[in-house]
Amino acid sequence: TRLLFQPRLLLTFLVLLALILTYRTRNDNGLALEDALYLTKNSLRELKQLYLPSKEQKLHHDAVEIDYPLGNAVNSFLPIDATIKYNTTERSGNITTNELRARYAAFSPILNHQVRGNFHILADGACSPVELGEEHTNKILIVMRGNCTFVEKVTNILGSNSKPLAVIVANDEPYRGLVTMFSNSFNQDGSLRLPVMFVSYESYQSLLAVESLDVVLTLSTASFGSWLSIMLSMILSPPLLILIFYLVVICGQNIKKRQASLLNSKLVRELTVYIFNNDHLIEANGLAHYLKVTGQTTNTPKDDSLVESPSTSTTSSTSHLNKIIINGIDIRESAQNLHVLTAPGDFYPSYKCSICLDKYTPLHSRVLILDCKHFYHERCLSNWLINFKRSCPLCNTVISAPNESLLAGQDRAFHYGSTDNDLEAQN
Ligand SMILES: [Zn+2]
Ligand SMILES: [Zn+2]
């Protein structure tokens, strides 16, 4: 069974790979996903303008339009990146655009548009109240990480009355990735109007190199594609892959189980239903014919006294001597014409169902008989075969092929009632 699952697993991985590839190509060509995101964002903003006009007006007071992210905790799991662009002029006169990656703090508002401005690198880490001259107002302020918390730095810079456009915190160690600055309490009400972002030590060095050149930085939010990449990387994380593997295995087992039970129910449907009548079983389809010939009705079950030899006392060695005669008809002799099975040659006599332990009602109980000559209530055996085991509950004989050999020699498509004359002759 383990070998059976391997092609399925391979297929699952191929499908995943195909999904990733289509996502990649889509992202490169049409940006359809991002368009959709942009439209969603726009419609949400319109909704906000309609129903929350006061808040929106406050937003427009600032030169920078600002969005608020989902919340501190969510943002630290799904970091949002920003880009810092600036132009430098080479010796040859060519202008090159440099692009640096930055990451928004979890408590930072997210920019809807670009922020442009000169920058100033603070001399100290802004761990104490910051004093800035007139020339440093309305600038993007860059501060080094370390010695105190991010929030303390931002608070000190905000207290300086220098009206910064943005605060960029630079890593103090080289070769480190971007960090999402996080705070449990800071800016919970969303009153911060200033984007706060983090850059690597290497980016800081690049900015330091152009500090004296009066370079204008352009800050903007990186495309939302990065969000999706992060989500994708989360989906492809090892624990999730293990979970997917587990689910695939479980699904495979369930499918196998369902197929087995489907096969079993097909098998059960192919079994002929009989009506119980003590020492003989009547084929359910031929019951009307049987009742007519033997002059019985289902309302008044045949009395036990009518049976000359009770089924419980018969043995296989003397079975041919015992006769079952109802209203003068020898059931054993006309068994084939009446579509009747007789005990103990055709089945082991029993007065109760071994599955539910209920007694059979003569001429009423519908039963199924197995190759091993054990018979049970139709409902009990169907349930057993479909849901539990494909074998006889009593003797454990496995049911393999459709039960066609039971009435061997008899024509299945036999037309009931066509032998009326023969039976009446016996009468
Ligand atoms: Zn039963
Ligand atoms: Zn059996």
TrEMBL record:
The keyword Signal applies. Its main location: membrane. The keyword Membrane applies. Keywords: Membrane, Metal-binding, Signal, Transmembrane, Transmembrane helix, Zinc, Zinc-finger. GO terms for biological process: protein ubiquitination. It comes from the Eukaryota. GO terms for cellular component: membrane. Residues 1-25 form the signal peptide. GO terms for molecular function: ubiquitin protein ligase activity; zinc ion binding. It is found in: Membrane. The chain crosses the membrane at residues 227-249. Residues 353-396 form the RING-type domain. This is RING-type domain-containing protein. It comes from Suhomyces tanzawaensis NRRL Y-17324.
